[in-house]
Amino acid sequence: MLIRGFIFGLSLLLASVSANAAGYTDWAIPTQLEYVNGGVLVTGNFGLANSSCTKTNYIFVPDDTSDGKAFKAILSMILTAFASQKEMKFNSNSCKRVTFHWTDDTASQTHTWHAVFVR
Predict the structure, then answer these.
(1) Which of residues 21 and 42 earns the better pLDDT score?
(2) Predicted model pTM
């Protein structure tokens, strides 16, 4: 009985971890930038960073007013990569419904405390 309880608990833990499937985008060059729904929607061949989200090749960066300096730093990185055609990579652990474009679909979302890369 103890083993069954352990296996049940372990399966619940694994299910909860996979339900919040965070990850990284693929390296890609941003092809379109749009300020919409209180943040920047970045388009490129990023793939799907978060398997809970439904829209591929989009990453949403909210304009987090509680940490304006970090948002400005990330926005500077995005604009630099866009202007110089450099690749970017984002970390995402949540999804965002960008209601201006979609009613049901969600894009991967990064926050100002997540990793953002340019190369």
Answers:
(1) 42
(2) 0.78
